[in-house]
Amino acid sequence: SAGFDLSLLHTLIPTVLDPSPGRLYADLAISGTVGKPVMEGAIRARFERLRLTPIGLDQPDADITLRLREQQLTLWPKVVFVQGGRRFEIELGATLRSPTPAGIDLQGSLVFDRFPILRRQDIGLVLSGRIDLAGTLARPSVKGRLHVNDLQVRVLGGDRDVRPLGPPAEVVFVGGDKPPPVPRASETFAGQIGQTVDLDISVEVPRRG
Q1: Cis amide linkage into residue 77, ω under 30° from 0
Q2: CA distance 199 to 193
């Protein structure tokens, strides 16, 4: 292909992608038989600047290529996003043994190094760790360990400031102390978390009837 304008994606998914100028190129060849087709080639997305809204990513010169060779679909090379000293690496691939979900083997990993995977006005999340993907498309398996470096949540009240009045003075709390006051809209009530989460998930996708 001569290049599809990727800036149009912003109009389709504005909550995910900020205006990101770039072009999509495809170079695919098909051979084999109708019963057993063989495809080889590559699909390349070349962004002059990639902006992902949910994580606040603003990455210049982003080049993402899907390569298909000998029934092997690979994200090549691995994709690395860098923000300051923080990194997010993606390696993904699939082996096409047969044209069914059970015949597509998955392999890949996501590596976070103090990377902000959520950066919105109301919530921010920074993670470190690794997630590995295996299994098949019919039954994917996810394993890994993630460390929550930072979690920040803000109470938003639109155009109005949330100002809690608190309980009436005559209320008596039985079996405990008075609950802590709710923070105002401008305050952050979750800071350094420092928790580690282990993942070991296997999902079986039901077949359509």
Answers
A1: yes
A2: 18
Q: What is this structure's pTM?
A: 0.69
Beta-bridge partner residues of 146: 129, 197
Which tokens hold the place of 21? 């100028």
The Cα–Cα gap between 199 and 30 comes to 39
Average pLDDT over residues 51-59: 79
Alpha carbon 72 to chain centroid, angstroms = 23
Burial of 88 (0-12, 13-18, 19+ CB in 10 A): buried
Neighbours of 125 (CB within 10 A): 19
Task: Provide the pLDDT confidence category of residue 130 given band limits of 50, 70 and 90.
Answer: very high
Q: Is 84 left (phi over 0), alpha (psi -120 to 50) or beta?
A: left
The three-class DSSP label of residue 35 is coil
Q: Which two tokens stand for residue 116?
A: 């902000």
73 closest CA partner among 110, 34, 33, 104: 104
Report the pLDDT averaged over residues 169-194.
Answer: 52
Q: What percent of the chain has pLDDT over 70?
A: 78
Q: Cα–Cα distances in Å, from 179 out to 151, 168, 175, 182?
A: 22, 13, 11, 9
Q: Is the pLDDT of residue 1 over 80?
A: no
Which strand (E) or helix (H) includes residue 12?
Answer: helix 9-12
The residue among 131, 68, 135 whose CA lies nearest residue 105 is 135
